[in-house]
Every structure is written in C-alpha cells, then in structure tokens.
Specification:
single chain, 94 residues, alpha+beta, two-stranded antiparallel sheet, 3 helices, globular
C-alpha cells in the first residue's frame, strides 16, 4: 500500500514545492510547531533543534524535510519570519 502524500506549498508566488509523505509531514510539522511554541529561533537554530529531536527516529533527510515543511507552514500563514536581522521564526498569532 502506498503512503498518503501531501502537496506542500511555497511562500513565493509561482514557485511549487514538493509532494511528500503525509506521515513525515505531520512528524516534522508537529516538531517545528513545538520548537516555535518555546522560542523564536533563527533558521539554523530551528533546523539544529529539529534534527536533535528526531534524528534517531526519522527516516530521511531531516533538514530537507524540515525546510520543505517550514516553507509550507509559511505559505499557509501558520508561521512567519520576523522583520529583524537575523530573521527568526515564530507562530503567527491567531
């Protein structure tokens, strides 16, 4: 049986993102949102924390999936980059 997939979005108009396993998407999304609930990390800090949390249990490239899902969450207006430098990520207040 084939895994269910999700077509991820890209925050830049006209760009397309990847179709990935829904199961992997949910794992990465849950961990990114958990990290952002605790802090406003830079891109590097976010990817390093994501890697440290799931490296032993996740099958596939953590950074690649992390970047793909992060872009999707930005496109869906769930997370955003801050205006200040260095850019940091945070959950958008609803």
């Amino acid at each position: 049986m084939k895994d269910e997939t999700i077509q991820t979005l890209h925050p830049v108009a006209g760009k397309t993102n990847k179709r990935i396993s829904l199961k992997k998407y949910e794992i990465i999304k849950e961990n990114i949102l958990s990290i952002l609930a605790e802090s406003e990390p830079t891109h590097t800090e976010l990817m390093e924390e994501l890697y440290s949390r799931i490296k032993d249990t996740f099958e596939g490239g953590v950074q690649w999936y992390g970047e793909t899902v992060k872009l999707d969450l930005e496109a869906r207006k769930i997370i955003e980059r801050t205006e200040k430098k260095p850019e940091r990520y945070r959950i958008i207040k609803t």
